[in-house]
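As promised in the previous annual report, we have extended the structural survey to additional targets. Below is the entry for Maltokinase.
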Amino acid sequence: MSEAASARSRLTADRAALLNGIGPLEPMLRTWLPAQRWFAGKGRAIGTLRAVSAAELLPPGSVPGLLHLLLDVDGDCYQLLLGIRPSLPPALAHTLIGQAEEGPYAGRAVYEGLGDPRLAALLLERLRSPGALGPLRFERDPQAPVPAGLTPRPLSGEQTNSSLIYGDSYILKVFRRVGPGVNPDLELPRALAAAGCGRVPAPVAWYEAQLPGSEPLTLGVLQPYLRGSDDGWQLALRRLGAGEDFTAEAHALGRATAEVHSALAAALPTVALGPEQTARLAAGMTARLAATAREVAALRPYEAGLRGAFDALAASRGAGVPAQRIHGDLHLGQTLRTLDGSWSLIDFEGEPARPLADRRRPEPAVRDIAGILRSFDYAARSHRPFAPAWADACRAAFCEGYARTTGRDPREDLVLLRAYETDKAVYEARYESRHRPDWLHVPMAAIRRLSEPQRPAHRVPPTPPAPGSVSPRSQPRQKPPRRPLA
Ligand SMILES: Nc1ncnc2c1ncn2[C@@H]1O[C@H](COP(=O)(O)OP(=O)(O)O)[C@@H](O)[C@H]1O
Ligand SMILES: O=P(O)(O)O[C@H]1O[C@H](CO)[C@@H](O[C@H]2O[C@H](CO)[C@@H](O)[C@H](O)[C@H]2O)[C@H](O)[C@H]1O
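The corresponding structure token record, generated without further manual editing, is:
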């Protein structure tokens, strides 16, 4: 046997031993997982749980140890980074998952490794020196070297994934629910950076798992941390609270969003959706509405009215609706206003619950626009008293900003916009009923409004593009708007 072949078979044997060895950790993981914000299978007992990949990131016996796991939990694959120590210092007590009683880690404390600064620092070191480690591959942009020794801290707050900030200079997002294929949160920012679009922090390093017979799974992305930036959602709420206008920011955000869309359309494949595809899009929205109405009782009285928006889309027979790669889950919380006052967009993962293949499919850019317009409504409804005029002004300013860059006001694509706003409100009703029932009234208010028969509209004045603006590729004009923006 050649040296390489014997090293390979040793590695396979080690991996098999590791996979068997994690069996004794199963009971503690079954208890710990459902309590995590990022765990999608909340509310039901875990059935199958098995490790599909295990790798020790430090030599066996190191203190602390770091065990990288990919777990299949009822068909979903999760990434875990487990710290292993003989005992936990008080500062790490809150990270404890359990005490192993048997197997290779018997007698040791097993804990959330990302909460341990020593292990978080080690992860950065791995990203700084690219290469393979068992099933894991670490890569980086050679043009953007990352300095050594940056102090890590976990990002506080409940997120879909887990993020670490290093020296206030970089942020590492560790994806929790992972799947085969490149994650759009790596793919799109890299494509935008290569296209010279500065509206998105460019990935400087990333890591993935290469499992037998599968496309690589993106596991984590390191990108510059925009220190001192304001999250668009918090900023909007502060302005509202102080009774201040937000239209200048909304306008600038419209321009930034349009720039990102134009760059994505130029860098990645685009398609024109014909009547059949548009009807399929509408059918998907109708199906999502039906499924949500089964789950969320409050939605049921409005189901028939809401369906009108999707029927109108199916009937619009748009001759080639442009579709392209988009953000996919755009809302104010995914925007950052940096210290110099400009807007950046983050978190291109798309709606986390959707299958990866769906999230990577081109869609009309209006979907993102509808997401932001819904967000202005959310902000206005979080304020007491409800501030509808504030939301209307922001929505109009955002669309005007968008049109200044692309030459086309999204409100002209009324049927499409209404369908996407309705779809988003339906998505939000399900999201809120599952995660934040106290917020359900916010999408429900929109649902009531969107389910009403539409009133006659006034026309949106055409917006001249700003000098030097980016023309949208292949944007066929739809029929002139006849109805109001919902
Ligand atoms: N490049 C960045 N610079 C500054 N803050 C960031 C950056 N990326 C993310 N954040 C902060 O981290 C939070 C979570 O990031 P996000 O990508 O939305 O993660 P998740 O997928 O877990 O929701 C954001 O709301 C933002 O406050
Ligand atoms: O940021 P995530 O990818 O985790 O997005 C999910 O959670 C969001 C809430 O944190 C949710 O957004 C909804 O609430 C926001 C206010 O908290 C509001 O600005 C958004 O418009 C509204 O959709 C998002 O839908 C969900 O996918």
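The chain has three domains: 3-115, 120-224, 230-450. The longest helix spans residues 414-435. These points will be discussed at the next consortium meeting with the crystallography subgroup.
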